[in-house]
C-alpha cells in the first residue's frame, strides 16, 4: 500500500503542487489500491492527475486510451516537461518507432503510453500484467450510445478487462448523465466500480442565452467590451468558422478559423498561436479546445446551438479554467435545431441524440435559473438560484404551480412512468388519438385533468418542472418521464413548486387569440380554409382514418388565420403537437406557402428567416415546386434538395409528386433506393396493393419513412 506521504511527495516532486484539488486524492488512493473506478470531473478539474500520478508509483506502464490522436504529442510533451517517461503509439509513426516503444514498455522504461482505440490491436505483445499495470480511458463517454460523442471504435474496449482481469481500469470524462455513467461501466465490464462524481458547478461562469438575431453585430459588441481577452466562438460548420473569422478580421479583430478540413500544419499553427496568446479569437468547430490547458480563456460563444447539454457544458468549461470571472454566451435559433436534427438522421443512436437535442433546446428556452438546470441534468441538486446567469439577473414572474405539477405527476404515475412528454400532455389534455386510445389511457383517472391548458403551455410547464427536478427524463427509455424524490413530496405532501407562465411575446398573444375560439376568417382566409379541408381529406383517405383524426376544423381555421410558414409557427396552431407536426406538417405547410405566394399574403414565421433567404425567394418567380424539381433533375438527391432549400424532406417529396402530375420528365432511378422498391413490391404482393400509407408503414415495422414510401410508390406507378 502506497503511503499518503509518498503520494504527496510525488505530487510535489513531479507536478509542483503541495495539495490536491477536490476529489483527486480519494481517486488516486482508490486507483493505487488496484480498484476500478469512474471519474466524472468538469473540464479543468484535474482529471489527468488521477491517473498520471499513480502511474509514477507503479512498476509497469499505465495505458491511456484517448480518441484525440492530434493531441497525444502535446500531452506527452507536457509529461516530459515534468520529467515523466511517456510516449504515444499511433499510425503516424514508423514501424521502427513503434517497435522501440513496445520494447520500452517491456523494459519498464515507460510510465504512460497514450494510444487511440484503433491502435490497440498493435499492442498485443505487451498486453500482459507484467507490462501493463493500469489502464485509463479518457473521454470515456465515447463508449456509450447514450453519450454525447459516441464513437464506435470505443466499443472494443470492453475486451480490456477480459484480457487483463487483474489490471485496474479508471474511466474518465467531464460530462455524463446517470444513464451514460452506468452504460460506460457496463460496456467496460466493470459494472460495480465506484463512481467519483465531482461538483459540476462552475460559479465563475456567467451563463447567458440570446436569440440568434444579428449575431455578428451582437458578437462584435460583446468582444469590444473586453478587447484584450481570449475567446472561442463555436460554430456548427466549417464554412461558418471561416466566414465569421474573415468578418471579424475585417472589423479589426485578431481572429482565425479552426476546423478539421484545414491542413494539419495550419490547424496546429492556429492552436499554437491561440495557446500562446498570439491570436485572441478562434472561430472553431467543436473539436477545438479538447486537451488544451489554456487557463485564461475569458469567454466562449456558441454561434450555433450545441446538439446536447454535455457538449455545451464541456465547451463552456474551456472558459475561466483559472477560476476568474468568465462568460458563456449561447445564441439560440430554431434553424439550428432543424439542422442538427438533419445531421442525426440515420445515426445508430438517433433517438437518443434527438432526445438530448430536445433537452438542449429546453435549456435554451428556459425561464428559470440556467445553472440550476445544468446541475439538475447531471444529477446534482441545488436548492437556490445561482444569481449569476441572465435569467437570475432579469427574473420572470413566478406563480404557484403545485396543482399543475400534481396533475402532471399523476399522469406520469398512472401511465407507468414509461411515456415521453408528448403522450403525457395528450393524456392531460384528454386527447383521443390512436396513441392514447390504443393504450387505454383514456380510462386512467387523470385523463383530461389538464384539458383547460393548451398543448404548448403544458410543454412549457413540464420543461420547467424537469428543470427544477420535479421529474426527470430517461433518455435510455425513449425519453420517458420519471418521478423523483421531489415528485413524491409534491404529490403526497403538497410541497410547493414555483414556475413561470410562458412569456407574453408577439407569438404568445397570437396564440391567445385561438385559445377559446377561432376568430371569423376574411375572404382570403376562408379560401385557404377550404384548400386545407381538401388536403385533410386526401391525407385522411391515404391514412385510412376519419378527417378529424388528421386535424379538427378548429385547427384548420387556426391555420388559415395564422398562415404559419415554418415548423415553429405550425406548432403554435391550436391542436398541433410535435407528433402531428412530424406526421402532417410538411404537407400542410407547403399548401399554405403555395397559397400565400399565389395570393400575395404574408406568412407567420416562428423564427425570422435571414435577409439573404428572403431576398433569394422574392427574386425568383419560378413556382416553388419547380425550383425543387430543377435541383433534383440537376443531380441532387431529394435530401440534398431539402437541405439546399431549407425545407423538410416531406415538402420536397410533395414538390416531386406535383411535378410528376404535371407531366414533367423525372429521373426516377434516383428517387429511392432499389432495396426500398423491392420491399414495396413484396408488400404489394402480400397485402394486395393496400390503400393507405400507414398499412405500408406498419408492414415495414416503421423502418421505412412515409416520405420514401411515397417516392417508391411514385416509381412503381410507372412500371
How would you sum up this structure in a few lines?
With 719 residues, this protein is an alpha/beta fold. The protein contains 33 helices and 17 strands.
Key phrases:
seven-stranded parallel beta sheet, 17 strands, 719 residues, alpha/beta, Rossmann fold, 47% helix, DNA binding, globular, single chain
Describe this structure in words.
The chain folds into four domains: 4-197, P-loop containing nucleotide triphosphate hydrolases (Rossmann fold, 3-Layer(aba) Sandwich); 205-339, Rossmann fold (3-Layer(aba) Sandwich); 396-503, Winged helix-like DNA-binding domain superfamily/Winged helix DNA-binding domain (Arc Repressor Mutant, subunit A), CATH 1.10.10.10; 515-608, HRDC domain (DNA polymerase, domain 1, Orthogonal Bundle). Residues 504-518 and 608-620 have low confidence and may be disordered. The chain is built from 33 helices and 17 strands. The chain starts with a helix and ends with a helix. The longest helix has 22 residues, at 578-599. A hairpin with a 5-residue loop joins strand 15 (471-474) and strand 16. It is of the alpha/beta class and 719 residues long. The protein is globular and about 85 Å long. The strands form four sheets. Strands 3-4-2-5-6-1-7 form a seven-stranded parallel β-sheet, with helices on both faces. A six-stranded parallel β-sheet has the order 8-13-12-9-11-10, sandwiched between helices.
